[in-house]
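Box 3.1 A note on notation
Throughout this textbook, protein chains are presented in two layers. The first layer is the amino acid sequence; the second is a token string describing backbone geometry. Keep the layers aligned when reading.
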Amino acid sequence: MTRGKLRKVLGCDAVIDERCSKYQQKKRVCAEHLQADAVRCKRGGNELYRFCQQCGKLEQLNRFQGKKRSCRMSLAKRRTNSSHLEAQRSEGTTPAASPHPTFYELWPAATPNSNSCASDSTQRCGDAAS
């Protein structure tokens, strides 16, 4: 099977081979369709798609705002990340705590206590307590 038969865009007859960029080969989309406003995708029915430059995949056209090349989800992620980092820079604070639970929150029994090796600098791990 040749690379040309693995295209994702319906009706595209461009040959995607070693002469194309590595990116085009990897994504299986020709240069013309990477930049197209809308394409029909194989296995996509009648839905229209556009290539998202941030996600690196064909996404449904309704996920884009206007003529933008990045889907709303990736734009929202970037906006959130950049505003969060900008706020930290202006406040001079360290990065905020993660919204995800920490290891010790999930497994409280693993929390270091006063008898642990880490809390007693005179005792080494594996040594018996005196």
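The first strand starts at residue 39 and ends at 40. The helical segments are 22-27, 31-34, 72-91, 103-106.
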